[in-house]
Structure formats: structure tokens, C-alpha cells
Fold this protein.
Amino acid sequence: MNISLLRYQVRLGLVVLVALISMPYLASAATCDFTRNLDLGEVGEDVRCLQQYLNGAGFTVSDTGAGAAGKETDEFKALTKAAVVRWQTANDISPASGYFGPLSRATYERLTSTVVTTNAPTGSNTTSASTGNALIDSLMKQLNELQGQVKTDEVEAEEEDEETKPKPNASSEEAEVKDLLEEVLDAMDEAEEAIDDSNDAEGIADAEDSLEDAQNRLLTSLRSYLAEDYEKAVSILERALDSAKDAIEEAGGDETKSEAEDLIDELDERLDEVEVMIEEADEDGQATSKAEELWDEAKDVIKEAEDMLEEDDYDEALDLAEEAEELLDDAEDAIGKKGQDIEDELDDARADLDDAWDDVDAAIDDGDEVGDAEDLLEEAEDLLDEADEALEDDDEDEAEDLIEEALELIEEAYDEL
């Protein structure tokens, strides 16, 4: 057996496997027969097929639940429309409105007509997405060429001898390629998440272009890797990594990460400062129980934010950090707060409630919808009555909690208007 050829076959198979497993944008996509235009509210198997195609082509309808890969539905709803918008944007369809009409159908036919299914099982309705198919075709072509290079025993022996000659730093260079490949794939995953979380249309478009550059460079680097030109593969992968990082930045990923890190660092320092303030107030005989409770809650939320930061969930980390900041503000405000302060808060809350009732009554008189606003205000009124009773029982902490709950309900009532 030609050991040299076998080594190439094994290596080529490994690359194909890595490409298929590691790169979600190379997943299979459904082949559909669209005979009508699709938009919000449409129901049918063609909608299900559209969702399967979008999921397979990298324009995920949903990560979990209805619409996720393997859980596609026959209903065209908001998530489907959003995925179609991303697909239209990526394919220069204007306007990218989410309406899957004649232009989108024609683009779909053009894209899928370039896809070739190899050894597909009978009755299969799936095929490789065009990018993934191009990679597999390229790699399979190389495999076939290698298989055609089987020569005489003498030549094989010469090739085997040549192959076994030590190459300087070959193992370390190959390891560098693999490490860099892993880094590029991670950065591309992070870029995709940043794009999904972004609301900046212009930033998304730039990020998708950069991500496509990273994808193309990664695929190009595989050729150099197969040829054992590790130095060139590293050079191409470094450029691919730069493109992936550009995509993250353009989609706002790095900005969110930096903002979350800065705020968490600031909160760690402030946590100590507020703790000292609480201890000094307690020594002076001031009320601190509510402040201590809020401080403890802020500390827990900061820890959650740090955990989310380590898991690269920057949006959640930032949301938690902002929540912790509000809790520390409340803790500082609560230092030394006594009965009369809480009675004043209760009076202010009742005034807010009266204003909310006036606004609801005015909306009803104007014939506007008020939703659950009335029910929410009634619940708020009951909570304020309970807060009044808690004050009479000298349970100031309970009274303040009830006032806060009531104010939240009042705010929800305004949201209903």
C-alpha cells in the first residue's frame, strides 16, 4: 500500500470532518418547490421547507423551540420573517423586507441550482449548502487526484522514503495551524452571535461581509494545510482571524464586552465603598437593614454578571451589571432611612397612583385601549394599603418592599396604555 497516499487520505478525511462538524454555515439545506409567495400568516409545508432551508443555510430561524433545526413549523411568523430578512440582506435582495416574493424565489432557485448532491439516499430532500458543497467538491477532487497518483512499487518506495525524511519544525508548525484554526472558528462563532444580537442594520451588513471574508480565507487556508505549506496556512488563517474580529467589532460585540467589563470593574470598587458606608451608618445607630439587604442582592448579581462575562455572553453580563448598579444606588439611598422617610415615599406613591388613574380614565374617555391597566392599578392600590398596615406594625422593610412592588405595577399600567 502507498503509505504516502494513505496519509493524505486520512488527513483529507480529517479536514472534511472538521469542516462539517465545526462550521454551522456548511450545514445541509432543504430543497424546496415554491409555487407561491410567502409572508406573515401563511401556513403550509412550503413554509416548513423554507424554515429548513434557512436553518441549513446558516440563517437560523430559532436556536431553540419552534422553528429550530429539526423543529421547523408550517407557520410563517416573526422569527421566520427575521431569518428571511437576514438571508435577503446577505444575497443583496432589496428591499430586505422579509417578504418571500418573486425576487426571493428567483434568487433561491439560482442559489440552489448550483448545488450538487453526491450519493444522496433515495427520497432525500436535503443537499449541501452551496458554500459547503464547494468545499466538499474541492476536497473530493483532491482526493480523487491523489488516488490517481498510485504508481509502480519502485516509485512508491521512493515517495515513501521521501515522505519519511524529517522536516524541520513540521510538527510544531502543524500544531500552530490547528490551534489557529480553532481560534478562527471560535471568533467566527462569536461574530455570528454578535450579528444576531445587533440592531444596527449598517453594522450587520459590514459584519456579514467581514465574516464572509473570514470564511473564504479559512477555506483557502485548508489547501495550504493539505499541501503541508504550514507557513502559508498560518498567514492566511491570521488574516481570517483579523476578518472575524472585524466582524465582531462591526456588529458591536467588542463594544458590549468592553462596556460590561468596565462597568463590572467599577461596581466591584463601589461594592466596597457602599459596604463601608453601611458599616459607618450602623455604628452611628442609623437604620441599615434595608441597605444591607440591597447590598447583598447587588453582590450576588455582580457575581452573575462576572459568570456571564466568562461565558462570553456579553449582553447578559451588561444587563446584570446595570441591574447591580441600580441595586447599589438603592442601597446607598436606603442608609439611615426611617419611618418618616418611608411614609413620605408612600404618599408619593399614592400621588403617582392617582395620576395613573387620571390617565387611564382619560384614555377610556378618548376611546383608547387600556389593556390590563385598570387591573394593574387596582393591584398597586392594594399593595399600598398593605404597606400602610406594615408601617403601623413598625415593619419598615416590608412597607418599603410593598411600595416598590406597587410602583412597578404602576409603571406596567402605563406600558399598557
User: Anything to note?
Assistant: Confidence is low (pLDDT under 50) at residues 1-28, 115-140, 149-155, 164-169. Strands lie at 28-30, 126-128. Residues 253-283 form the longest helix (31 residues).
